[in-house]
Protein backbone atom coordinates (compact mmCIF):
# COMPACT_ATOMS: atom_id res chain seq x y z
CA UNK A 1 0.00 0.00 0.00
CA UNK A 2 1.02 3.58 -0.58
CA UNK A 3 -0.06 6.87 0.97
CA UNK A 4 -2.96 7.33 -1.45
CA UNK A 5 -6.29 8.84 -0.55
CA UNK A 6 -9.73 9.09 -2.11
CA UNK A 7 -10.05 12.12 -4.40
CA UNK A 8 -12.15 14.80 -2.74
CA UNK A 9 -14.60 14.85 -5.64
CA UNK A 10 -14.99 11.08 -5.36
CA UNK A 11 -16.55 11.12 -1.88
CA UNK A 12 -20.33 11.10 -2.09
CA UNK A 13 -23.47 10.18 -0.20
CA UNK A 14 -26.07 7.75 -1.44
CA UNK A 15 -29.20 9.59 -0.43
CA UNK A 16 -31.12 6.54 0.82
CA UNK A 17 -29.14 7.13 4.02
CA UNK A 18 -30.75 10.53 4.43
CA UNK A 19 -34.33 9.61 3.45
CA UNK A 20 -36.00 10.95 6.59
CA UNK A 21 -34.23 14.29 6.32
CA UNK A 22 -34.98 14.50 2.59
CA UNK A 23 -38.68 13.91 3.19
CA UNK A 24 -38.68 16.91 5.52
CA UNK A 25 -36.37 19.28 3.62
CA UNK A 26 -34.74 18.11 0.41
CA UNK A 27 -32.80 21.28 -0.48
CA UNK A 28 -31.73 21.88 3.10
CA UNK A 29 -30.46 18.32 3.42
CA UNK A 30 -28.29 18.71 0.33
CA UNK A 31 -26.87 21.98 1.67
CA UNK A 32 -25.92 20.33 4.95
CA UNK A 33 -24.25 17.41 3.18
CA UNK A 34 -22.17 19.86 1.18
CA UNK A 35 -21.21 21.66 4.38
CA UNK A 36 -19.93 18.37 5.82
CA UNK A 37 -17.70 18.02 2.75
CA UNK A 38 -19.51 15.70 0.39
CA UNK A 39 -19.07 16.58 -3.27
CA UNK A 40 -21.43 14.12 -4.96
CA UNK A 41 -24.70 12.28 -4.33
CA UNK A 42 -26.58 9.30 -5.66
CA UNK A 43 -30.34 9.84 -5.86
CA UNK A 44 -32.67 7.25 -4.35
CA UNK A 45 -36.24 8.50 -4.08
CA UNK A 46 -37.70 11.80 -5.23
CA UNK A 47 -40.01 12.57 -2.29
CA UNK A 48 -42.46 14.40 -4.53
CA UNK A 49 -39.85 16.50 -6.31
CA UNK A 50 -39.21 16.45 -10.04
CA UNK A 51 -35.85 15.60 -11.54
CA UNK A 52 -35.46 19.25 -12.55
CA UNK A 53 -36.18 20.44 -9.00
CA UNK A 54 -33.69 18.00 -7.49
CA UNK A 55 -31.07 19.11 -9.98
CA UNK A 56 -31.68 22.72 -9.00
CA UNK A 57 -31.30 21.88 -5.29
CA UNK A 58 -28.04 20.05 -5.95
CA UNK A 59 -26.70 22.88 -8.10
CA UNK A 60 -27.54 25.41 -5.39
CA UNK A 61 -25.75 23.27 -2.79
CA UNK A 62 -22.70 22.80 -5.02
CA UNK A 63 -23.24 19.04 -5.23
CA UNK A 64 -22.95 16.89 -8.35
CA UNK A 65 -25.51 14.14 -8.91
CA UNK A 66 -23.72 11.10 -10.35
CA UNK A 67 -26.52 8.53 -10.58
CA UNK A 68 -30.10 7.61 -9.81
CA UNK A 69 -31.60 4.31 -8.67
CA UNK A 70 -34.42 3.18 -10.97
CA UNK A 71 -36.54 0.08 -10.34
CA UNK A 72 -36.15 -2.98 -12.57
CA UNK A 73 -39.70 -2.56 -13.87
CA UNK A 74 -38.65 0.65 -15.58
CA UNK A 75 -36.68 -1.41 -18.10
CA UNK A 76 -40.00 -2.06 -19.83
CA UNK A 77 -41.99 0.83 -18.37
CA UNK A 78 -40.77 4.06 -20.00
CA UNK A 79 -37.02 3.35 -19.98
CA UNK A 80 -36.54 6.32 -22.30
CA UNK A 81 -38.20 8.56 -19.73
CA UNK A 82 -35.97 7.16 -16.99
CA UNK A 83 -32.89 7.89 -19.09
CA UNK A 84 -34.13 11.41 -19.79
CA UNK A 85 -34.58 12.03 -16.06
CA UNK A 86 -31.00 10.96 -15.30
CA UNK A 87 -29.85 13.41 -17.97
CA UNK A 88 -31.91 16.13 -16.28
CA UNK A 89 -30.32 15.28 -12.95
CA UNK A 90 -26.88 15.56 -14.53
CA UNK A 91 -25.99 11.95 -13.75
CA UNK A 92 -23.69 9.60 -15.63
CA UNK A 93 -25.14 6.30 -14.49
CA UNK A 94 -28.63 4.81 -14.25
CA UNK A 95 -28.71 2.10 -11.61
CA UNK A 96 -31.02 -0.88 -11.15
CA UNK A 97 -30.88 -1.47 -7.38
CA UNK A 98 -32.14 -5.07 -7.26
CA UNK A 99 -33.88 -7.84 -9.16
CA UNK A 100 -37.42 -8.99 -8.38
CA UNK A 101 -37.55 -11.99 -6.03
CA UNK A 102 -38.88 -14.23 -8.78
CA UNK A 103 -35.73 -13.67 -10.84
CA UNK A 104 -33.27 -14.75 -8.13
CA UNK A 105 -32.45 -18.05 -9.87
CA UNK A 106 -29.92 -18.88 -12.59
CA UNK A 107 -32.63 -18.68 -15.25
CA UNK A 108 -33.89 -15.44 -13.75
CA UNK A 109 -30.44 -13.88 -13.80
CA UNK A 110 -30.05 -14.94 -17.43
CA UNK A 111 -33.38 -13.29 -18.21
CA UNK A 112 -32.15 -10.16 -16.45
CA UNK A 113 -28.87 -10.31 -18.38
CA UNK A 114 -30.80 -10.29 -21.67
CA UNK A 115 -32.86 -7.34 -20.46
CA UNK A 116 -29.71 -5.50 -19.35
CA UNK A 117 -28.08 -5.99 -22.74
CA UNK A 118 -31.04 -4.30 -24.38
CA UNK A 119 -31.43 -1.56 -21.78
CA UNK A 120 -27.68 -0.99 -21.77
CA UNK A 121 -27.75 -0.36 -25.51
CA UNK A 122 -30.39 2.31 -25.03
CA UNK A 123 -28.46 3.85 -22.16
CA UNK A 124 -25.29 3.96 -24.24
CA UNK A 125 -27.17 5.59 -27.12
CA UNK A 126 -28.36 8.22 -24.63
CA UNK A 127 -24.79 8.87 -23.42
CA UNK A 128 -25.30 7.11 -20.09
CA UNK A 129 -24.14 3.81 -18.54
CA UNK A 130 -26.37 1.19 -16.94
CA UNK A 131 -25.20 -0.18 -13.57
CA UNK A 132 -26.52 -2.92 -11.28
CA UNK A 133 -26.39 -2.64 -7.48
CA UNK A 134 -25.95 -5.90 -5.55
CA UNK A 135 -27.29 -7.35 -2.33
CA UNK A 136 -25.98 -10.33 -0.38
CA UNK A 137 -28.42 -12.82 -1.88
CA UNK A 138 -27.04 -12.08 -5.35
CA UNK A 139 -23.95 -14.12 -4.42
CA UNK A 140 -25.88 -17.32 -3.74
CA UNK A 141 -24.39 -20.32 -5.51
CA UNK A 142 -26.82 -22.56 -7.39
CA UNK A 143 -25.58 -25.68 -9.19
CA UNK A 144 -22.02 -24.39 -8.95
CA UNK A 145 -22.91 -20.99 -10.44
CA UNK A 146 -22.75 -17.71 -8.47
CA UNK A 147 -25.84 -15.77 -9.53
CA UNK A 148 -24.07 -12.39 -9.65
CA UNK A 149 -21.39 -13.79 -11.93
CA UNK A 150 -24.01 -14.59 -14.57
CA UNK A 151 -24.45 -10.86 -15.17
CA UNK A 152 -20.70 -10.35 -15.44
CA UNK A 153 -20.45 -13.18 -17.97
CA UNK A 154 -23.53 -12.57 -20.09
CA UNK A 155 -23.74 -8.78 -20.41
CA UNK A 156 -21.20 -6.87 -22.49
CA UNK A 157 -18.87 -4.80 -20.30
CA UNK A 158 -19.64 -1.64 -22.25
CA UNK A 159 -23.38 -2.17 -21.65
CA UNK A 160 -23.41 -2.97 -17.91
CA UNK A 161 -21.24 -1.86 -15.03
CA UNK A 162 -21.79 -2.31 -11.32
CA UNK A 163 -22.33 -0.15 -8.27
CA UNK A 164 -20.65 -2.59 -5.90
CA UNK A 165 -22.10 -2.52 -2.38
CA UNK A 166 -19.15 -3.59 -0.25
CA UNK A 167 -21.18 -4.60 2.79
CA UNK A 168 -23.42 -6.87 0.75
CA UNK A 169 -20.48 -8.46 -1.09
CA UNK A 170 -18.97 -9.49 2.25
CA UNK A 171 -22.39 -10.49 3.59
CA UNK A 172 -22.69 -12.75 0.55
CA UNK A 173 -19.42 -14.48 1.43
CA UNK A 174 -17.24 -12.86 -1.24
CA UNK A 175 -14.26 -10.50 -1.33
CA UNK A 176 -14.64 -7.24 -3.30
CA UNK A 177 -10.94 -7.33 -4.21
CA UNK A 178 -11.44 -10.61 -6.06
CA UNK A 179 -14.03 -8.94 -8.27
CA UNK A 180 -11.76 -5.96 -8.97
CA UNK A 181 -9.00 -8.36 -9.97
CA UNK A 182 -11.10 -10.72 -12.08
CA UNK A 183 -13.30 -8.12 -13.79
CA UNK A 184 -11.20 -4.95 -14.12
CA UNK A 185 -12.91 -1.71 -14.95
CA UNK A 186 -16.48 -2.87 -14.33
CA UNK A 187 -17.12 -1.14 -10.99
CA UNK A 188 -17.23 2.64 -11.45
CA UNK A 189 -19.17 3.25 -8.22
CA UNK A 190 -19.11 1.77 -4.73
CA UNK A 191 -21.54 1.78 -1.87
CA UNK A 192 -19.20 2.18 1.07
CA UNK A 193 -21.10 0.63 3.95
CA UNK A 194 -19.42 -0.84 7.02
CA UNK A 195 -20.29 -3.97 8.99
CA UNK A 196 -20.41 -4.16 12.79
CA UNK A 197 -19.00 -7.16 14.67
CA UNK A 198 -22.49 -8.65 14.92
CA UNK A 199 -23.06 -8.28 11.16
CA UNK A 200 -25.32 -5.24 11.36
CA UNK A 201 -24.77 -1.94 9.55
CA UNK A 202 -22.17 0.47 10.91
CA UNK A 203 -20.83 3.94 10.10
CA UNK A 204 -17.92 3.88 7.68
CA UNK A 205 -14.66 3.33 9.54
CA UNK A 206 -16.37 2.11 12.71
CA UNK A 207 -16.84 -1.50 11.66
CA UNK A 208 -14.77 -4.47 10.58
CA UNK A 209 -14.44 -4.08 6.81
CA UNK A 210 -10.83 -3.58 5.73
CA UNK A 211 -11.36 -0.54 3.50
CA UNK A 212 -7.64 0.21 2.96
CA UNK A 213 -7.11 -3.29 1.53
CA UNK A 214 -10.23 -2.99 -0.62
CA UNK A 215 -9.44 0.49 -1.92
CA UNK A 216 -5.84 -0.48 -2.66
CA UNK A 217 -7.26 -2.39 -5.66
CA UNK A 218 -10.04 0.07 -6.49
CA UNK A 219 -8.13 1.50 -9.46
CA UNK A 220 -8.15 -1.92 -11.11
CA UNK A 221 -11.89 -2.14 -10.53
CA UNK A 222 -12.38 1.19 -12.27
CA UNK A 223 -13.78 2.91 -9.19
CA UNK A 224 -14.57 6.61 -9.62
CA UNK A 225 -17.13 7.21 -6.86
CA UNK A 226 -17.12 6.17 -3.22
CA UNK A 227 -20.73 6.68 -2.07
CA UNK A 228 -21.41 6.39 1.66
CA UNK A 229 -24.46 4.39 2.65
CA UNK A 230 -26.00 3.30 5.95
CA UNK A 231 -29.32 1.47 5.67
CA UNK A 232 -30.51 2.12 9.22
CA UNK A 233 -28.61 4.94 10.96
CA UNK A 234 -29.70 5.86 14.48
CA UNK A 235 -28.74 9.47 13.75
CA UNK A 236 -28.31 10.04 10.00
CA UNK A 237 -26.41 13.30 10.45
CA UNK A 238 -23.95 11.83 12.96
CA UNK A 239 -23.48 8.89 10.61
CA UNK A 240 -22.92 11.21 7.65
CA UNK A 241 -20.27 13.19 9.53
CA UNK A 242 -18.44 10.12 10.88
CA UNK A 243 -18.47 8.36 7.51
CA UNK A 244 -17.25 11.42 5.62
CA UNK A 245 -14.40 11.96 8.07
CA UNK A 246 -13.37 8.29 7.81
CA UNK A 247 -13.20 8.40 4.01
CA UNK A 248 -11.50 11.79 3.85
CA UNK A 249 -8.79 10.69 6.28
CA UNK A 250 -8.32 7.16 4.95
CA UNK A 251 -4.98 6.21 3.41
CA UNK A 252 -4.27 3.07 1.43
TrEMBL record:
Swiss-Prot/TrEMBL keywords: Isomerase
Top-level taxon of origin: Bacteria
Molecular function terms from GO: isomerase activity
Domain Xylose isomerase-like TIM barrel: from-to ranges: 30-234
Stretches of the chain forming a coiled coil according to its record: none
PANTHER family: HYDROXYPYRUVATE ISOMERASE (PTHR12110), INOSOSE DEHYDRATASE (PTHR12110:SF41)
Protein name per Swiss-Prot or TrEMBL: Xylose isomerase domain protein TIM barrel
